[in-house]
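HOLO CASE FILE
Compound: adenosine monophosphate
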Amino acid sequence: MTFKSIKGTKDLLPDESGRWLHLEAVIREVMTAYRYAEIRTPTFEETAVFSRGIGEETDIVGKEMYTFTDKGGSSLTLRPEMTASVVRAYIQHSLAEQGGVTKVYYIGPMYRQERPQAGRLRQFHQFGAECIGAAAPACDADIIAIAADIYARLGIRCTLKLNSVGDPVCRPKYREVLQAYLAGVHDRLTLESQRRAETNPMRVLDSKAPQDIDATMDAPSILDHLSDESRAHFDAVRACLDDFGIPYVIDPRLVRGLDYYTKTAFEFVSTDLGSQDALGGGGRYDGLTEQLGGKATPAVGFAAGMERLLMVLEKSGYTFPSDALSVYIVGLDERSRRWSHVQAVRLRREGIPAECDFTGRSLKAQMREANKRGARHVVIVGEEEMASQRAIVKTMETGEQQSIEFASLLSYFLRLPVSPNSDASAYVSTH
Ligand code: AMP
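Model generated. Tokens follow.
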């Protein structure tokens, strides 16, 4: 009997992991430059953290959560997103008392029981940032700038969609106006949207079903119903984005899936993705901290998919840094093989990626292996070299060979310039 990974989950195999490490390195670099610190929370929480935090009426809580009862009888859920967990941690550890604004980022797996398809998995990975404790529109723009910078740094072409979903003053009034409109087009809506028209009418505008889009073409826009405060906030966010040179399009239909958003909502979409075109998104969630039992605290954040980011990069032909081997050391007999291993370890201790043979292969087979691994240099040592204490060093690109004293080998490799295409920093895992 053999086993397979669960539908909607993926193994990250050795030939792909370098790409992930590179992406993570870019994300960490940008986050650090914006002065966001990493937060790691457990991958499961009490179910109520999500059902209360995200909202019972959302697809996530309604049908996508991996919820189970543990042996102690507690209802637990694998995290479907991070914001609720981050806010739970913020309250639990009284991070507000440390003063100032709490700025955190994360990278990690999330779990949703969705129908798997291209760009949609059941265990997928998100990176994101949360800025908790600041009401200023400048913070919304700061959060948007992080995502925009990460995408720009990776050369990704995408569109930033921006909207305001109002606040507790104006949203109930807009909800009524929208509900009255939806009642008029009730029969033209999908069954799902007919139900949502009652429970969460703004989500009807988010529907991708052509029937719903058609029926709601003339729906009233939230932007015509914003309170003075929400309007001023929206205008200020836009002004900041203009100052930063970040282009956006206003999309009054953008409401995002989660209930906790207030004021700013945004999404990055890519034309290089199929039907699952959302790269990431976020918004302001001033009501969430109170919802989870803390003091009312303004906050804003975003979350973005890693798998979709990789899909876009692979499509665009992005050049990932090479993880090519620097040195392959060929040993031709028992004694030189032992020497090779010692040299490989010495080079590695200096941070130079080095490899040698453990399986007693022939010179030809070892040279083939060095080629396959993209080694830049091959060191060849046999009985004769051991006797003369000089190794043959072959530069693979030029085919040039030279004889180098054993004693000078390490300093020879240390003096070589670093390959322009290698990204050593990307492979220094911070895990
Ligand atoms: P959300 O938390 O739903 O706003 O999702 C934020 C981002 O995470 C999306 O824009 C996607 O890039 C990614 N994402 C969400 N759900 C999935 C999924 N099931 N599989 C892969 N990526 C996802």
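CASE NOTES: The mean pLDDT is 92. Residues 349 and 378 are 18 Å apart (CA to CA).
CLOSED: yes
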